[in-house]
Amino acid sequence: xxxxxxxxxxxxxxxxxxxxxxxxxxxxxQADRLGHEALERDGEGFEAVVERFGEEIxxxxxxxxxxxxxxxxFPAPEELEALNAIIHPIVWRRQQEFFAQVEADDPRAxxxxxxxxxxxxxxYKRYDRLIVAACPPEVxxxxxxxxxxxxxxxxxxxxxxxxxxAEKLPFADYVIDTTGTKDDTRRRTADVYAKLKAEAER
Length: 202
Known about the structure:
The protein is of the alpha/beta class. It folds into two domains: 1-26 and 109-202, 3-Layer(aba) Sandwich (Rossmann fold); 33-90, no CATH class. It contains ten helices and five strands. The protein starts with a strand and ends with a helix.
């Protein structure tokens, strides 16, 4: 089995590439989804996060309001670090369970974890191969504004909190340029998947 990390930047097409890989036959899981599940009321991280950040992050139903939590952690690096210290070990353990299940089902599979900050955390070192979905900054901004109804200032503020895509490219085994049409990206993703699948089957 080949373990593959998939990352990118704000609105760089990472999730679309992940969906294309799944269509092609890869086993794909989103680290963000695992993180969200950890924050649910029956999730492994719920109690620790509420204890650390207070009951003001809870909504009327007693669930964690991710927007309220985000308003605390995103402007403050030390608060984000505290949240990550709780959630990242849970997410990594769930990823390990995912890999174990995929390998048991199909020892020659391509197993992909889609995650936003693989390079920043050093997590990329845990994978056999790393894919970066990339496009120019102006494309990222336009896509984010269209998707979120955000202003250019809001988009740039989000991007400024991230590692620039250009700095991620040297870490990649494969760069998938998502600048063009969706069909262009599908073709590029298919080319990369063919190489990954061949490697997994050796």
